[in-house]
Amino acid sequence: MNAPLRNWVEIGSINDIPRQGARCVKNGEMTIAVFRTSDDRVFALEDKCPHKNGPLSQGIVHDGCVTCPLHNWVISLETGAAQGADEGQTASFPVKLDGQTVLLGL
Amino acid sequence: MSKQRLVIIGNGMAPGRMLEHLFEVSDAFEVTIFNAEPRVNYDRIMLSPVLSGEKTYTDIIIHGEGWYEERGITLHKGEKIVQIDRDERKVVSDKGTVAQYDRLVIATGSSPFIIPVPGSDLPGVLAYRDLDDTEGMIAASAKGGRAVVIGGGLLGLEAAAGLKLRGMEVTVIHLMPTLMERQLDTAAGYLLQRELEGRGIEVLCQANTKRIIGTDRVEGVELADGRIIDASLVVMAVGIRPNVKLAQEAGLAVNRGIVTDATMRTSDHSIYSVGECVEVGGMVYGLVAPLYRMAKVAAEHLAGPSKAEFVHAETPTKLKVTGVNLYSVGDFAEGPDREDIVLRDAARGSYKRVILKDNKIIGAVLYGDVADGGWYNEMLKSGEDVEGMRETLIFGQAYQGGASADPLAAVASLPDDAEICGCNGITKGQIMAAIRDKGLTSLAEVRAHTKASASCGTCTGLVENVMGLTLGDTFVIPQAAGMCPCTTHGHGEVRRLIRAKELKSIPAVMQELEWSTPEGCAKCRPALNYYLVCDWPGEYTDDQQSRFINERVHANIQKDGTYSVVPRMFGGLTTADELRAIADVADRYSIPTIKVTGGQRIDLLGVKKEDLIPVWKDLNDAGMISGAAYSKGLRTVKTCVGKDFCRFGTQDSMGLGVKLEKFLWGSWSPAKLKLAVTGCPRNCAEATCKDIGVICVDSGYEIVYGGAAGLHIQGTTKLGNVKTEDEVIEVIGAMTQMYREQGFYLERIYKWAERVGYDHIKDVILNDLEARKTYYDRFVYSQQFAQVDPWAERVAGAEAHEFSNMAEIKLEAAE
Ligand code: SRM
Ligand SMILES: Cc1cc2nc3c(=O)[nH]c(=O)nc-3n(C[C@H](O)[C@H](O)[C@H](O)COP(=O)(O)OP(=O)(O)OC[C@H]3O[C@@H](n4cnc5c(N)ncnc54)[C@H](O)[C@@H]3O)c2cc1C
Ligand code: SF4
Ligand code: FES
């Protein structure tokens, strides 16, 4: 099977993102939220909660998840899947670090 | 055959337990009990939770009236035996009741020792032994003031902690250089002292009481070095003396206690003795575990021929002060033939010391992390040779290969005869057997059938683990009500520990209080951030990432991801210039909706995130700051027009509202805080449903509080009347600070007041001028760091990353 062909795009430095925080990247009409955890792992999700499209980039980041600011769903940063009893999944994108530089796989 | 007559003097914990054993195996006795205390048998150990308010008397009754009736026992409450006539085999009470016996049990316990200094008989000087003492302390604490506790042992410290929780100032006076020196070594005693001081309890060691001062009642304590400590209550907890007088007068062998042999029989073959009044094997005891063993031995010998004998065993000591963990057992004096293994973890405030002799454990002192206490005690009792695990012994059971840090696995690895409940001597095997044989499924049932964890309760967690082990998944081990799933500590505990341990960052709190998640969650992080902001003004750096988005970007997020912006209009007043600036901003940034809010100001709805900074800049330039319509903090101070315009107005309600809002803005609080000032009791500003309201009246100002009109509708409660605007401001500043310091996150004033008591708040804020002043001063101090307009800060460049995208990807044709 062919791995999907990824286009790796430089979006900036890891230091642009606060620890336990997120920044947004505009990709045409779509907004992608790029998260940084306290141990400097970086993840990217579409900035749309599977519940009612809440901007996940504005949520609180904890333990590999983000809590949506609108109604507190908890979404896994790695898979985009809603945790606990809630069901739904947000699109996730691969991220690579090259030194300090963050590369987003589209 | 007619029944034998068994008479018991004293109805404390020891004879109560003896009767339980006796009725299990024999119905040969007709029992009569005399008790000097006018009540049934209760759990004396639990007086400390009653004192601290965690339990009530009814919670700690061991045998209710019905228990005696069912067994045909005659209980003479409030009757003291004054004479034992051994020739005629009868006892006589102070009320003249006479009872004949075939067998007599003396269980008179002990009496608190009162140091015979001048003034020790003044009203207001109490011992700590029974319910009356406890109720006396509770009554005294209601009046506030300072309590001096003489004696820094187990009882004294439990009294001190309880009185502190009841709101008194507390000083502990201790003769020795360190606290609880009979159970703790100096290092652990020091840690304990530091912990208590962190809770605001003053501890004076090496302090000798010279006299108690006072004319009609106690007013203070004078120390040998001349220091005088004011006190409205003095508690003497310096030790106990076995009650032997009665036995002595009856000619029984008495030494320090009533002398018995190992079967609990005194020098008279018809008379037994159990409890703290006994001396057996040359020892007297003051903890229930050995007394319960005496009770069992005595019951077996009363029931018939038996080989049961009392044997000495070390009893571990624990202190029942919530949040203080210490465990000590055995002998910890230093000596040439002994070896110490010590582990200190200063960061975690924990200390462990195990004392070895000939490769065997003879004592252990643990402070902080006490999980392994039971394990060391097991080895101490079995006399196991620990040579093989010397290197890892101090790290505890989890490090001994096999058993893991999982508490269930640790319990699983214990042998069946391992003691789980020290007070009652109940083993793991006994609990498991009872669960299986009797089909027990709840902790209450296990307590009822085995007594495990039914006395001091510190082994409850272990018992639950044994239940989990036996019942498997059908038993869910209950979680303590923590503030969120990341911790077992409740909000109150966390707030107290933040101050006591001087924790000044979220990671420090999580580390020290052993959060179970590395980074907390969306519930606990904002709460911790608030507690730290409140407790360490000027020192703590607000953690933006632990704030909800509204408080991070100082605007309210809307369902479509845009924001609403509400500038402050002090007291609901505005000007033509401000209105013009708002109109210009709305035009300039195409803000779709402008609305007048229920809080007497204007809301700009539908602002795009990237426009927030320029919108704020323009509003700032027109002299407006953030209205904090998003904050757990001061929201609005609504006003009505007042006496300058209204024909009914009695005071300048608008002016006072503006002053209050200028004074209070910027402050963070546990939940949102809304005020109103209304010019007369017609109440057009709706002051009687606000967190704090002011109703102007002819003679001044009536202050009310605890209202809400949201999810829950609640009218306010009156705090009181004051005469001047300055007093209004001082009272409201002080009350706000008290709420800020005590409230749990998201708890509005009415909930806080219900929890701590409206009367109490009134006593402190309205009636106690000194307390009011200190709260007010602390509020004023913290305001100098809080009154910074967050919009202006961000316009100047703070948190810039919040307001712009990281990148914009140009669409490129894929190759
Ligand atoms: C804008 C406003 C409605 C309006 O257009 O008038 C408003 C809007 C919101 N209120 Fe309110 N409340 C507004 C006055 C009130 C009032 C009236 C008052 O303050 O006199 C009340 C009842 C009084 C009270 O608080 O007791 C009120 C009781 C609530 C409650 C229930 C609070 C409670 O403890 O029961 C909530 C929910 C909450 O806070 O958890 C709430 C929450 C909200 C939130 C913040 C919901 C949210 O979390 O997103 C709304 C934000 C809307 C937005 O997107 O901007 N709002 N809200 C008012 C702003 C006042 C201001 O100038 O700051
Ligand atoms: C506040 C507090 C906390 C404690 N905490 C712990 C703890 O955590 N762990 C622990 O193991 N132990 C603890 N103890 C100690 C424990 O409570 C006692 O060891 C135990 O209650 C003693 O039981 P007893 O039956 O010997 O005597 P008591 O319970 O003292 O009972 C004696 C009874 O006899 C009555 N009496 C005395 N003389 C006469 C007479 N002539 N005629 C009739 N009645 C008489 C007395 O009024 C009293 O009711 C604590 C004690 C206190 C006060
Ligand atoms: S009442 Fe308040 S919270 Fe409810 S929809 Fe209206 S503004 Fe929103
Ligand atoms: S939109 Fe995210 S929880 Fe509702």
From TrEMBL, chain A:
Q: Name one Pfam family in it.
A: Rieske_2
Q: Keywords in alphabetical order, please.
A: 2Fe-2S, Iron, Iron-sulfur, Metal-binding, Nitrate assimilation, Oxidoreductase
Taxonomic placement: Bacteria, Pseudomonadati, Pseudomonadota, Alphaproteobacteria, Rhodobacterales
Keyword Iron-sulfur listed: yes
Q: What is this protein called?
A: Nitrite reductase small subunit NirD
> Which InterPro entries does the UniProt record give?
Rieske-like_NirD, Rieske_2Fe-2S, Rieske_2Fe-2S_sf
- Originating organism: Rhodobacter flavimaris
**Domain Rieske: from-to ranges:** 8-104
| Xref: Gene3D superfamilies | Rieske [2Fe-2S] iron-sulphur domain
TrEMBL record, chain B:
> Which residue intervals define the domain NADH-rubredoxin oxidoreductase C-terminal in the entry?
317-383
Pathway(s) per entry: Nitrogen metabolism; nitrate reduction (assimilation)
Write down the Gene3D superfamilies for this protein, in alphabetical order.
3.30.390.30, BFD-like [2Fe-2S]-binding domain, FAD/NAD(P)-binding domain, Sulfite Reductase Hemoprotein, domain 1, Sulfite Reductase Hemoprotein,Domain 2
Q: Mind telling me which Pfam families this protein's record contains?
A: Fer2_BFD (PF04324), NIR_SIR (PF01077), NIR_SIR_ferr (PF03460), Pyr_redox_2 (PF07992), Rubredoxin_C (PF18267)
PROSITE patterns in the record, alphabetically? NIR_SIR
User: FAD/NAD(P)-binding domain: from which residue to which, for each copy?
Assistant: 5-282
- All residue ranges annotated as the Nitrite/Sulfite reductase ferredoxin-like domain in the record: 558-621
Question: Which residue ranges does the record assign to the Nitrite/sulphite reductase 4Fe-4S domain?
Answer: 632-770
**Keyword tags:** 2Fe-2S, 4Fe-4S, FAD, Flavoprotein, Heme, Iron, Iron-sulfur, Metal-binding, Nitrate assimilation, Oxidoreductase
* Reported cofactor(s): [2Fe-2S] cluster; FAD; [4Fe-4S] cluster; siroheme
Q: Which CDD domains match?
A: NirB_Fer2_BFD-like_1 (cd19943), NirB_Fer2_BFD-like_2 (cd19944)
Q: Which InterPro entries match?
A: BFD-like_2Fe2S-bd_dom (IPR007419), BFD-like_2Fe2S-bd_dom_sf (IPR041854), FAD/NAD-bd_sf (IPR036188), FAD/NAD-binding_dom (IPR023753), FAD/NAD-linked_Rdtase_dimer_sf (IPR016156), NasD-like (IPR052034), NiRdtase/SiRdtase_haem-b_fer (IPR005117), Nit/Sulf_reduc_fer-like_dom_sf (IPR036136)
Domain (BFD-like [2Fe-2S]-binding): give its ranges. Answer: 420-467, 483-532
Family, as annotated: Belongs to the nitrite and sulfite reductase 4Fe-4S domain family.
- NCBIfam families, per database record: nitri_red_nirB (TIGR02374)
The entry's protein name is Nitrite reductase large subunit NirB
